[in-house]
Amino acid sequence: MVYDPLTGNSCHAKAIWDTGATLSCISPTIAKTLNLSAVGTTTNHTANGSTASNKHIVDIAIGNIRFQKIAVTSPPLPDDFVLIGMDLIGLGKFTVQNMNENGEVKKVLTLELP
């Protein structure tokens, strides 16, 4: 869930965990849906090249964890996606596990904050 910390407005989003990303990003569609004001501009550098995008301040909630007043950018991403970068992942213990239980493979992702 992504929130505008000024108005409390929110929208659902799908999260992409990207340990290769320095900063977290939201799609331009989310920025438009929440009517977020830009607090600046920046250049995002990706494997596909560089692109200019706006900077915004948001709250991002993942399960029962809420990151408040996070600076994000809004480069081209699918409509309802949030890219979770190392700026947030690095705040805690990030774990990905594959578990074989009753012959089934389960993927478990956890983020624990101190």
Automatic annotation (TrEMBL):
InterPro entries registered for this protein in UniProt = Peptidase_aspartic_dom_sf, Retropepsin-like_bacterial
Q: Which key words are in the record? A: Hydrolase, Protease
Gene Ontology biological process terms from the UniProt entry = proteolysis
Q: Which GO terms describe its molecular function?
A: peptidase activity
The lineage's top-level taxon is Bacteria
Which CDD domains does the UniProt entry name for this protein?
A: retropepsin_like_bacteria
Short name of one Pfam family? gag-asp_proteas
Gene3D superfamilies, per database record: Acid Proteases
State the name under which the record lists this protein. Answer: Gag-polyprotein putative aspartyl protease
Organism of provenance: Hallerella succinigenes
